[in-house]
Amino acid sequence: MNKVIEVELGVSSIDKAIKELKEYEKSINDKLQEFIAILLQDGVQVANASMGSVVGDSTQAAIVVPEVMVDGAGNIVTAYIQLSGKDALFVEFGAGIYYNNGNAHPQAAEFGYGVGTYPSDHPPNRAINPGYWWYKGEDGALHFSLGTQASMPIYRAAESIRNNAIRKALDVFRS
User: Fold this and answer.
1) In contact, 76 and 167? CB cutoff 8 Å
2) Where is 160: in which H helix or E strand?
3) pLDDT of amino acid 108
4) Burial, 19: exposed, middle or buried (Cβ in 10 Å; 0-12, 13-18, 19+)?
5) Least buried of 138, 146, 153, 158, by fewest C-beta within 10 Å?
6) Comparing C-alpha atoms, which of 157, 161, 162 is closest to residue 92?
7) How far apart are CA 158 and CA 108, in angstroms?
8) pLDDT single digits (tens) 114-123
């Protein structure tokens, strides 16, 4: 997206150049907004596709509509998508070793999670072999669980956005 602005030393020529620069600034901002919308759309599609492959007990999670925050001047400050719901962490990072042996979330350790672990103040806080457990549900009854496979919708969305950002930026800003 190259732009050439020619200016002569004169009031009308300088005024014309200022006008062209303001129009160019607006077109760049419009392209930036388009670029961010394309990246968010890509992220939501990938995350939703990952949500379609959730396996296990924990299925109460959903992709939240992308959010864009702007400052007082209308400039985009933050843009994100998120996973919400009571099972969001289980769907993202997995729960239990039955489904996740060898399928660990690449960033689980960074966030304090791991295959077969469940943060708890009361032991036991680790699943035992062969990878299932019983838990007391809100209904007061005991429930059998094999856990939930790490579907990683947000991780996969971020990875897709990161891998496609340059190509998409070139597509948007060259047009």
Assistant:
1) no
2) helix 153-174
3) 81
4) exposed
5) 138
6) 157
7) 15
8) 665 555 544 5
Can you give the pLDDT at residue 78? 86
**Backbone phi and psi for residue 145, each to the nearest 5 degrees, phi listed first:** -140, 135
Q: At 48, which amino acid appears?
A: N
Helix (H) or strand (E) holding 27: helix 11-51
- Pairwise CA distance, residues 55 & 99, whole Å: 8
Residue 163, token pair as written in the block: 């891998």
Any residues with CB less than 8 A from the CB of 72 and at least 6 apart, and which?
none
147 and 100 Cβ atoms separated by less than 8 Å: yes
**Residue 8 is encoded by which pair of tokens?**
């002569």
**What DSSP character marks residue 22?**
H
3-state SS, residue 106: coil
